């Protein structure tokens, strides 16, 4: 029998979650390809992507993100291109939180705008790409549920350890992880009134249909439901 796990995902939009209810929670590649407010927003600034050719255009300029980047480069533009390529092709899955003390305070400021916008803004010298999004979009916290097997295995197991485990051992290790983390969170919550930072990562090509949404919270609704104070 498969286990179903609950996660929280923080997002921002300006259509009262209409596109979320239509497409569900989708990965970054889908967000810039489907008929979404995010794709239209980028297009308003003259930014379009070609995922197959691994490139994107800004006005009359084409940026190649297919090549190997120098991991030790100190060039700011090179680093931003590398970040954009990484997020589009290596880290484009839906990310979330199994537990976290107030997800609205997460360091990536995902309650303000997609992190991807910051990379584009820095590279293209377009501060309004970020500012306009933050001014015109609202934050929502999506509580959803999916089977444990929909999460990438390294959500639960160190990548290096995965190399030496067969599928049965992986399944057992994931369940042991779940028990240990749950008990640790109970301990931390009881004795220290805090939660462990436990992140969740969906498999890259999976999306979460809106039928799997348990609740869509506004910021205020989330804070009230989880007894956090507004910062």
Descriptive report:
- With 231 residues, this protein is an alpha+beta fold.
- A 3-stranded antiparallel β-sheet has the order 1-6-8. Strands 2-3-4 form a 3-stranded antiparallel β-sheet. Strands 5-7 form a two-stranded antiparallel ribbon.
- It is globular, with a radius of gyration of 19 Å.
List keywords for this structure.
231 residues; alpha+beta; three-stranded antiparallel β-sheet; 39% helix
What is the ordering of alpha helices and beta strands?
A: EHHHEEEHEHHEHHEEH
Largest sheet: 3 strands, antiparallel
Oligomer: single chain
Shape: globular
Helix content: 25-40%
Coarse structural class: alpha+beta
The poorly predicted ranges are none
Indicate the proportion of strand residues.
15-25%
What is the CA-atom radius of gyration, in angstroms?
19 Å
What order do the helices and strands come in, and which of them pair?
Blueprint: E1 4-13, H1 18-23, H2 28-31, H3 37-44, E2 47-50, E3 55-58, E4 61-64, H4 76-89, E5 95-99, H5 115-124, H6 127-136, E6 138-147, H7 159-162, H8 167-192, E7 198-201, E8 213-218, H9 219-225
Antiparallel strand pairs: 1-6, 2-3, 3-4, 5-7, 6-8
Helix pairs in contact: 4-5, 5-6
Q: How would you sum up this structure in a few lines?
A:
The protein has 231 residues and is of the alpha+beta class. The protein is built from 9 helices and 8 strands.
